[in-house]
Request: fold
Amino acid sequence: MPADDRPLRADAQRNRAALVAAAREVMGRRGLDAPLDVIASVAGLGNATLYRHFPIRRDLVQAVFADQMARYAAAVERALEESDPWAAVRGYLMEISALQAENRALADLVTSAEYTDETRPVAVAHLHALLDRARAAGRLRADFVVEDVVLLLLANAGVIRRTAEHAPAASSRLVALLLDGLAAEAATPGPPPPDPAGIARALSGTGTTPPIEEREP
Reply:
């Protein structure tokens, strides 16, 4: 929608829809850093048209993946409704890892602080509650924290990037092995959990996604 909130003309609406569809397809294969000129080409439009609708990459990403990000928030809400604390944690981690495997861009998006929306703070608060409940029940290893979920998702995203085309079952195999180590009865002494501030810095553009692109109008 233009800055003055006037409705788009019919041709502009078609162009915007074509760009979003192209971005969904290209980013799904190549990740969030897919070249914007490739997206414009797939949409059958020029770069100027793309930047007119989406001045920065963040705008395009949010237009493409808002619905998918809501699926991550819904997953933790469903997990909190599960009566068994361990089944809830296990089911949640399996579900969001599977969502990552569906789409390379989503695999990057869920572990990126560059691209966020209003659903993320609520989802993180619910995740704290989910883990607190499982630890209090003695089912989840006592030192497993939200930052460890981020590590799991980062590992899964890396596996997806390297194996999606040739060994698509690798992601689910990794997650199954990692989950076996999270049960309280399987826990062994290990290093302390990662520092939250350090994890936040790691997700702020240092390897998961490129810096957000700006373009002069």
Observations:
- Residues 160 and 168 are 8 Å apart (CA to CA).
- The domain at 65-202 is CATH 1.10.357 (Tetracycline Repressor; domain 2).
- Residues 206-217 have pLDDT under 50 and may be disordered.
- The chain has two domains: 7-54, 65-202.
